[in-house]
Amino acid sequence: MSHVRIRIDFTSLVDDDEFVLGELTDELADDLRDIGEVERVELATGPDAKGVAELALGVVTVLAGADPGYLQALVDVVLAFLRRHSGRRVHLRVGDIELTIDRPTPGQTDELVSTVRAAIERTRP
User: Residue 47: pLDDT above 80?
Assistant: First the structure.
């Protein structure tokens, strides 16, 4: 089965500083590692970006396949993160498709899993 990278980021709140955002990003990455390969996203610094890259706050990627069980686990992890950190939203980007997750109903969660699966299928070579 082929896999694609899904970009996951969350919104910050007014009171967030770099430390808080870094801690939350680490927490989300750790949670996602239970289900797959996770990477923190690096930001290029400067015009040539030859130095040490900075890590983007609030952004990770996870390697995903289109298996419904895996995608359900991915969505469950994201929803658990949102429950622990109310007031935030999470954005998933698969190829050119971007989804925003806030507080979905169970029906919307099922639809979300189907939408992510379809997006993965579209991005495969």
Answer: no
Contact 24, 1 (CB under 8 A): no
What's the confidence (pLDDT) of residue 46?
Answer: 57
The reported pLDDT for the residue numbered 81 is 95
Question: In the predicted model, what is the mean pLDDT of residues 38-46?
Answer: 79
Q: Are 82 and 88 in contact (CB under 8 A)?
A: yes
pTM of the complete model? 0.84
| Beta-carbon count within 10 A of 81 CB | 19
Answer for the pair 11, 57: CB distance below 8 angstroms, yes or no.
no
Domains and CATH numbers, the chain: 4-123 (3.30.70)
CA-closest candidate to residue 35, choices 80, 90, 87: 80
Cα separation of 90 and 8, whole Å? 7
